Each structure stands twice: as structure tokens, then as C-alpha cells.
Amino acid sequence: MALTKVLITVKTYPTISTKYDELVCTAGFKEDGTWVRLYPIQFRKKSYDEQYKKYDWIEVDLVKNTSDFRPESFRPKNIDSEIKVVGHIGTTNNWDERRKVCLGKIYYNLTELIAEAKNKDICTSIAVFKPTEIIDFTAGLVDRVWDKNKLAQLNQLNLFETNSEGKFEVVHKLPYKFRFIFKDNQGKESHMMIEDWETGQLYWNCLARHNGDEIKAIADVRKKYFDDFARTKDLYFFLGTTQAHHHVSLNPFIIIGTFHPKIDLQTKLF
Fold this sequence. Notes:
Distance between the termini: 48 Å
Shape: globular
């Protein structure tokens, strides 16, 4: 089978599944500049060589995910299909090479993007979006632990078993939902969750640095995403829908990643 080459730009925070245990939704661009969503992938159970980073080029045997109506959704041919890292794009020249791949099509009007998502002939479910104004970045408290019944079911099925030396430890659940509040080019205000793995990992790193002080950890996360990304960077969002809410939510999109090179002052001048 011909392998598909994908530039990874999105890795969401892991969730748990009674079928595949812990899953990560990955997305990126094919060589022709179109989006592809890779799901399911048991990322943390992959070998070290297969645990790709953002902006790695990977090769994988993909097939259409027939259980997902969204046109960008594919899956590895088998859950244990090999994923090979074949390259990486760095940040030289202010993300110039990354820009060429990622910024081919940009949305500025959220209403238009949502209309495309609801249009069954188009059904756009993943996109690059440029907010016109960032108003705030917030954190809201949610359940601190995974659903006990689901965890019990997973343990009964031994889905966390990895080898004879022990069991696979499920990732900690984030106790907060982080959101951007922003406007599009029509002045439409939105409150949108961000589910980027890097956001969650930043929170845990800040929490450790502040010896468990959640208020200080949240403040540090906000400083990175609001004071740094929103105020000093040329910020874009990678937006994606969830399958369950694609057709039923007024706005089915969440933020699944950010693209944040420095502001190009030459471009601003002209």
C-alpha cells in the first residue's frame, strides 16, 4: 500500500476510550496542502521512534475512517500500524517553511466557516482561522478525575496492560478547561475551548514548578497564551469539530492547536 505523508500540526490532549483505552486525535497537512485527521491513535503506546512531534513529517498507511462522516477523517490501516518519522520543519526565518504548508487557506469569518461545516456537501471539519481580536484567555474548573465506571471497565478488560513489567498508566485528567475569548472580522464574539496537548502539559509543568499552587499555574498558562501568543505573536487557530457535536451544536468547533510565529513587522508596514 502507498504510504501517506503528513505534516503533524495538531495533537490533542489524550482522552480515554473503552475500546482503545487512551487516545490522541492527531491532525496535519498532506503534501498537497489538504487537512487530514488521524484517529484513533494510541500515541503513548507507540515506540519511541514512532512518537512524532509537532511539525514532524510522518509516513503511515491510512484508510478512510468509515465510522466518521467528516471528510478529513482517516485512520491507520490497523491500530498498530507503523508510523515512521521522515522529516521535521523548524522555525527558521520566522516559521517561513511552516507558513508555506499551513497557511494556504485561512478563514476570518466564523459564521462562514460554521456554514461550511453544516453544509453536508462540504462538511468542513478542520481549518485554519485568524482571529481579529483576542479579548481574554480563561480557565474553568471541571471534574478532576476520569469517569470511575469507565476506568473500572477498562481495568476489567485489561486494556491498560502493556507488558509483563506492569500496567499502562492513564494520563491525568485536566481539572480545568481553558478558553480563548475572541472576535472574528465581523465582530462576532466567541468563547472557544482549547484542547491542545501542549496546553495541558504546560499546566502540569507550571503546577509542579509552583508546588501544587493551581492559581499560580493557571496564571502562568494565561501569561503564555494571552500575554505572549495573543499580544506579541501573529496568532492563528487550528480549529476542529467533534464528531458528536458537528451537526447539533450552534458552533461545533474547538481550538485544537495554535500557530504563532512572531509578528512580521515588514508585512505590517505594507
